[in-house]
User: Fold these one by one.
Assistant:
Number 1:
Amino acid sequence: MKKFLLILTVFSFCISSTFVSAAEQKKDVIYSVEDGVKLECNAKRVRGSIDDYIDITDYYYFKDGKIYSPNLVKLYGKINDDPRKVLKLKITDSEIKFKDRFYETWTMDYKWVTIDRKTGEYRFSAKRDFGTWYRTANAVGQCKIIEE
């Protein structure tokens, strides 16, 4: 009888640890950075003077280990252009950091983005440079996965 209880205890422990490890993988808000994952990030401007960032929704796509962003192209450029690959991409277990940019003839637009993978917090600093003067904005919001 003692052997039976011991085997039952070990078996139940193995099953419960399997469920815990599966739950731990899904506890992060941004739990996957595989190809085909699409992020939706909503943010509000907390300071700065770029009016385009008062209330904004950005989308990011994961493909071939990179992130593609259509946001600045749609905001300042041609609407039908393909998403551009972001620069200086760093993906760790806790956060995603990158720089998004878009150049026009006389202006340059930059966005330095940080996404916390555990909480989904979305932060960015933006700069719209006109050559002789510029505007900046800082925004904070939330990201979530909308497609896998």
Number 2:
Amino acid sequence: MLNEEERKELEALVEHEKRNLLFYVLMHDRLVASGLLESEFESQINFHLDRLIDLLSKLKK
């Protein structure tokens, strides 16, 4: 069971990952135009999604 401080920290990290994902979605065209390969873009999205899933899983414990 998480204490209140751990829960708040995890919630903050969840929000951070949501903002990371939003950044990549909103900036997709600019990032690709500046030379980011589509595979690198997808890799970054997958990284942040995996991390978000992990954090949400920890919150539910």
